[in-house]
Amino acid sequence: ETITGLILMVFYTPSPLAAYGNMWNILGNVPLGQLFRNMHRLGAEVMVLVVALHMLRTFVTGSYKKPRQFTWATGVLLLLFTIFLSFSGYLLPWDQLAYWALTVFISGGAAAPAPPIVNDTVLLVLQGGPALGADGLLRWYLLHVLLLPLLAGIFFFVHYYKVVLYGISLPPGREQVGEDTAKRVPRDERTYFTPDILTSELMWTALATLFLVAGSLWLWDAPLETHADPVVTPLHVVAPWYLSWSQGWLKLADKTLVVGFIPLLLVAFIVMPYIEVGKSRRYADRRVGLTVAMLFITVMLVSNWMGSPEFRVQSSPDREVSIQLLPEEGPGGLKGIPFEHMTPGTYSPGQVVDGNPFLTRGLELFQSAMFQQSCTLTGNTQWEACKVDVLENGTRRFSNFFTSDAMPDPVAKLEIVEVQPNLKELILHYEVTNPDTGEVSTTEWTRPRHAFSNYEEECRFLNKSCATD
Question: What is the CATH number assigned to the segment(s) 2-306?
């Protein structure tokens, strides 16, 4: 992380006028720039996962108990710093994903259960002014490259010192209840830092580096959306996976309650070893604690799912299809069709256009997007059968495997219109008949496509699902 971060710093300027352009320069012009960025982003997320799993292992084995309470407390703080290290880098590309994720995060800070003057001060510190801009970007950049690494480094060495001081705890079954025998292990059975632990950690570091390089080269690319735009809110603002649970909670409870509860949860984790009365580390003696831990993990996993767009944040199904294929900004499934292959006419989802594989591929993506947002009451083999729910007001709602709000037996078309020699309009038409009233509703979604917008190249570069192949 440090090495790739230092390399990226050379080519990055923390300014809204330059940051996004710097990202494209890193991806397109800097030798191995995309690899370094992928490794840096993937490494940050893997680091959060590894620290969280390490804490889970520590809890399950009871290694947080006396005399290791302070070691546990520093571990909790290290997890917090690791999460914020990863998240603080989330803003730096200055794209839509970063800008709006941080905007949601900062708005949570302003809703804390504290006097208004405190909330206003926190808001000013986090965003550097009345709105998130140049000052805010600079502050989060300094947090990411200076303050958070410094704090994480200090607590890491304190944590490691405590590990060396007390030794690595034995398996619970090998210790007497209430005794810490890590220092009483016979010399021929002890695990020493040099060379055993040091060699082991060097090997794990080498394997982790190999995994990151392989994953960054062949399996995953760090996302980069369109340039941050304060006046255009994306359809779905999604937090990183390690904070998605908080979005799930915000959908169910008052923002002030959630923002006030999270620090209390952190404090509870820190003080837990000091107030726990049980001395035994054996699994059979800790059934209640382990059960609570499993319930907590289950709640967090469910909360993470609730933080996804599939839970309680659903736009109209036709808009979901339109944004996927013809987003307001940047490339999309149909925008990626090469301009010269956008033959004017009207087309159906899934239609095969002879001699035009790019347009055919675009219509396949249209068919796939419609399949996820549509269902049938008439046996139409294009769509999945509708599941019907009767609401409290007596109306029916139709759903399928993918969504709880599907269009019943829709008729959809793509119309391509030549406006000027270098400009075409892509128009999505939707027609849905209400099976209860017979009322027909029609909607349209129109986006322009210029010959020089170069969306097909952007699609290929960002590995988006577009009709470019």
Answer: 1.20.810.10
Residue 194: DSSP 8-state: I
Listed residue (110, 103, 84) closest to 255, CA to CA: 110
- Nearest Cα neighbor of 23 from 267, 180, 223 is 223
pLDDT one-digit tens code per residue, 194-232 = 777 788 888 988 998 899 899 888 888 888 888 898 888
- Helix (H) or strand (E) holding 398, with range, is strand 396-399
Residues 138-187 have pLDDT tens digits of: 999 999 999 999 999 999 999 988 887 887 777 777 766 766 666 666 66
In whole angstroms, how far apart are CA 108 and each of 104, 123, 249, 250, 369?
A: 6, 9, 12, 9, 33
- Residue 31: count other Cβ atoms within 10 Å of its Cβ: 7
The per-residue pLDDT for 171 is: 74
Count of other CB atoms within 10 angstroms of residue 376:
19
Whole-prediction pTM value? 0.83
- pLDDT class of 285 with cuts at 50, 70, 90: confident
Question: How far is 338 from 467, CA to CA, in rounded Å?
Answer: 8
Whole-angstrom Cα distance, residue 263 to residue 307? 19
Between CA 231 and CA 210 the distance in angstroms is 42
Residue spans per domain, the chain: 2-306, 317-462
Report CA torsion sign: 44, 47, 49, 52.
negative
The pLDDT of 79-88, averaged and rounded, is: 95
Whether the Cβ atoms of residue 105 and residue 161 lie closer than 8 Å to each other: no
User: What is the secondary structure of 63-84 as a DSSP string?
Assistant: TTSTT-HHHHHHHHHHHHHHHH
